[in-house]
Design goal:
Number of strands: 13
Helix content: 40-55%
Strand content: 15-25%
Largest sheet: 6 strands, mixed
Strand order of the largest sheet: 4-3-2-5-7-6
Radius of gyration: 22 Å
Amino acid sequence: MVSELPNQVGNDCSHARPNSNVPLCDSIHGKPMTQTGLTESVEKSVEQSIASVWPIERWGQTTTIVAVSGGADSIALLHALVKLNGGTGCSNLVVAHVNHGTRGEASEADAHFVRAEAKKLSLPFHLGTRATNDQVSRKDQVTPHPSESSLREFRYRCLREAAHHHGARYLVTGHTLDDQIETVLFRIFRGTGLRGLAGIPAFRKLDDQLTLVRPMLAVTRAETQAYVATIGRTHRVDASNEDSQYTRNFLRNELMPLARKKFPDIDRAIARLSEAALDHQNATSELAVAARRCIIHVETSSGETGMRIDCRALATFPASAIINSLIDQWDQLGWPRGNINRETWNQVAQLIRSTDTPCRVINLPGNIRAERVAHSLMIAGQHD
């Protein structure tokens, strides 16, 4: 569910700031620049990067949800999309903000800030909260320190509901190159294969009506901060981003700064690794498509949708194609990946290819159960 925030702006602006302290330098070559040169370079760089990934012809007349947290990345995204689509009041954009309610007054101030930003741009604003989302479990509501994965799942649940409420075809987020690098590193440490190294995709279908778009994966976080500064806007700063008990914050605040001192080009090196993995994934996509024909969606006795696999047919494909087809179907069913790593996918692939285990069960993250009986493997949610 989504609700409209009252027409007011919070008084707590301790986390809103102009970006006047961003160095005046060329985002590519690091050369000192005048304020005019900075403005032209940064604005063109960010907007052209978005337009090259996601041309205006594809979305300019289509209802689009823009996820805005209030941080520099999402504020830059919002203003760039507005500018690309003709300026203030473009009728197809809807600003959506999710208030997790984990930071008390600061969370409320973030919501007020984004509401005010949407109002200045003459765009509708909608808010998702734990109180308005009817799919939030009691456990989610009372958890004082929710995990990164539970926060992400809740956030996308709210955003998808907002998109469906407005009949939107696209949901756009402000993920940057920094997010891409952090994601690839996190997957490496957790254990991943080539698919995981490919990182965050720019486009991903969430269901038959909605596509998730991340058009700023080639833009750095520093560039979004500079962009916000050059257009004279402010942004919010989430103090919880400094808490390194969260894995991504640890990578961002502690590991990467240390690594950059020893390997100055590490960001671009990881980006090139991700691009190479994506090229490999695209090259083998036809094989994965063929493998997916061995998997069908079925309704379980509990009324939920699961997948049934013809093990004899799928076992004829390479392990990489089996795993890729499983991941594709897993995502299509909307199941959270949670802590699934390459080792887990390998176990399922081995179960499919096995010739001497007619009956075996693997319990997967997210309360999902894989059970093989004879030559058929059923993967579905399990209930007590």
